[in-house]
Amino acid sequence: MFRTTTTTTKSTIYSLLDQCTTINHIYQTHGFMLTRGLDLDNLFISRLIDLCSNLNHLKYATQLFYHKPNKNIFIYNTMINAFSSRKRVNESVFIYSKAKNNGLKPDFYTIPFVLKGVIGLRDNGVCLGKWVHCESIVFGLDCDVNVGLWLVKMYASFGCVRDARKVFDEMCVRDLAVWNVMVSGYCKVGEFEKAREFFEAMEERNVVSWTALIAGYAQGNMACEAVEVFRRMRVDDGVKPDEVTMVAVLSACAQLGALELGEWVHGYINEYNLRKSMSLCNALIDMYAKSGNIKKAMDVFENMKDRCVITWSTIIAGLALHGFGKEALDIFSRMEKSRVKPNDVTLIAVLSACSHSGLVKYGRWYFNNLLPTYGIKPRIEHYGCMIDLLGRAGCLSEAQEVLNRMPFEPNAAIWGSLLAASRLYGNVELGEKALHHLMKLEPNNSGNFSLLSNIYAADGHWNESGSIRKAMRDNGVKKISGASCIEMNSRVHEFISGNGSNPLPERIFEVLSLLNRHMDLKSMHI
Predict the structure, then answer these.
(1) 307-402 fold
(2) Cα separation of 443 and 450, whole Å?
(3) Of 145, 216, 301, 469, most Cβ neighbours within 10 A?
C-alpha cells in the first residue's frame, strides 16, 4: 500500500512539474514536495532547477541547489547548464569547480554545459575554452562524440578553425552535426574553399548542412554561389529548405537584386506554411527593398503583427534607398510612437533617408540630437551620412566643418562622397584634397581618378585632366571592368566586360546584333 501511494504521489509530482508555467506554480509544487519528503529526490530538484532557469528565476534555482544535501553530478550539471544558458559563465565554472572539490567526477554532459556558456564570451573566451578542453582530456571525456562536438563548436565560434579541425581529426566517431559545424566554421573565417571541400566530402547531408554553406556564401558576399548551392539543394538533391535556409537565400537575393527568385522564395514560404518568424519577414522586406519593389516591402511590413528595431530600421533604409525620404521619416515617427527604441543603425537609415531626398533641415536636427535625444554616441557612419547629405545639397563648406570636428579619421566612403560632391558643384580644390586622401586609402580604385579627371575637364583644365589619366597609367591603376547581372529562371548570370568565360558568347552576340538591327530599323521608320 505504501509503495502504491508513493508511486501515485510521484506521478502527481511529474504532472505538476509538466504544468509549471509561473514562479508561483514552482512555489506550490515545491511546497507539495516538502510536505511529502520528496524534496530530497535528485530528479525532482533537478527538474525544479531547470524550470526556474527557463522562467528566468535563477535566484530561486540557486537556493534550491544549495539547500539540497548529498548532491550528485546530475544536480551539478543542471545548475551549470542553468548558469551557462543565461551567459553567467563565472558562476557555471564556479559550480563546476565545486563539484570537483566535492569529489565528483564530471561526465559527458558536464563539459558541454560549461562550454555552452564559454561560447557566449567575448574577452578571454578562447583561453577559458582551452582550459575546459584540458579538463576533458584529464577526465578522459574528450573522445565522446558530444564533448567533441562542443569543443569544435567552441573553437569555431572564436574563429580558431585550425584548433577546431584538430579536434575534429582526432575524433574517433563523427556525427553529422560536427561536420556541419566545421562547414560553418570555415565559412566564418572566409575559407570558403575549405568549407566547400568539407561539404562535398560529407557522406550525408541534411537541411542544416546546405543552409550552413548557403548562409556562409551569403555572409561572405558570394551571393551567386549561395544561389547556385540553393538551386542544387532544391533541384538536384530534393532537400526541402526551412525558414533558416530561406533567410540566407533572401540575403543573397538582396545582394544580387534577384527579384524573381526572391518572389519564388516568398511564394514557397506561403505555399508550405513556413513559420513567418520576425527574422524571415525582415529578410523579405530587405530583399524586396534592395531588388526594386518597395511596395511589396511595405506590404510585408504592414502585415507583420510584431516588429522589432531591425524591422523598423530595414524598412526605413529601404524607403531611403528608393528616395522616399519623407515616407521614411513618417515610418520613424510611427516607430517612436510604438515605443520601440531606435538604435545606431536606425539613425543611420534616417540620416541616409535625409541624404537621398535632400532633407537638409531634418538631417541637421537628427544628427545634432543623436546623443541628447536618442542617447546614441555618433559613429563614423553617422558623420558619413551627414557629410554626404551636405555635399549633395551643395553645402560644401559646412560638410568640411563637420569633417574637421569629426573624432575619427575619415574613411574612403567619406572622401568618396566629398569627391562626388566636388564634381557635382565643380569644386576643384576640394576634389584634389579628396583624391589625395583616396590615393592612400584606395590606391587601385580607378573610379576616384576618373572623377577628378572629369572635374578638371569640366572646368577646362585639360592638361590637369590628362595628367590624372597619365598618373593612372604610371601607377598601374587599371580601370575596373564593368559588370552586370541578369536573372532568368531563378538563376543569376553575371557578365563582366572583357571576360570571355561565358559558354554561349556567339549566341549572345547574335542576339545583340539582332537587337541593334531592330533598333536601327525602328529609328529609320520613325
Answers:
(1) 1.25.40
(2) 13
(3) 216
For 167-194, the pLDDT digits (tens) are 999 998 999 999 999 999 999 999 999 9
Question: Per residue in 429-463, pLDDT tens?
Answer: 888 788 778 777 776 556 666 666 666 666 565 66
- Residue 170 and residue 203 in contact, taking contact as beta carbons nearer than 8 Å: no
Rounded CA-CA distance 521/490 in Å is 33
- Provide φ and ψ at 317, rounded to 5°: -65, -40
- 58 Cβ neighbours under 8 A, 6+ residues apart: 52, 82, 83, 86, 88
Indicate yes or no: pTM above 0.85.
no
pLDDT at 457: 63
What span, in angstroms and rounded, lies between the C-alpha atoms of 180 and 13?
39
Report CA dihedral (128, 131, 136, 137) to the nearest 10 degrees.
Answer: 150
Q: Which amino acid is at 408?
A: F
Label residue 450 exposed, middle or buried (CB < 10 Å: 0-12, 13-18, 19+): middle
Q: List CB contacts of 309: < 8 A, sequence separation 6 or more.
A: 340, 341, 342, 343, 345, 346
The residue assigned the cell 569529489 is: 103
**So what's the pLDDT on residue 1?**
31
Mutual angle of helices 207-219 and 176-188, in 10-degree steps: 0
Query: For residue 444, what are the contacts with CB-CB under 8 A and spacing of at least 6?
Result: 477, 478
- What lies within 8 Å, CB to CB, of 150 at 6+ separation is 111, 112, 115, 116
> Going by C-beta distance under 8 Å and a sequence separation of 6 or more, which residues neighbour residue 12?
32
Amino acid residing at 85: S
β-pairing verdict for 491-496 and 483-488 = antiparallel
Break the chain into its structural domains and give their ranges.
174-291, 307-402, 409-479
Asked whether the beta carbons of 496 and 481 are under 8 A apart, the reply is: yes
The span from the CA of 226 to the CA of 237, in Å, is: 15
Q: In 3D, which of 205, 248, 254 has the Cα closest to residue 230?
A: 248
Residue of 432, 338, 354 lying closest to 388 (CA atoms): 354
> Which grid cell sits at 518?
531592330
Q: Which of 271, 278, 228, 223 is nearest to 250 (CA)?
A: 223
Report the SS3 class of residue 480: coil
Say if residue 520's pLDDT is above 90: no
The pLDDT of residue 4 is 40
Q: Which residue has the higher pLDDT, 122 or 220?
A: 220
C-alpha distances (whole Å) from 462 to each of 432, 438, 439 are 15, 22, 21
Cell matching residue 180: 556541419
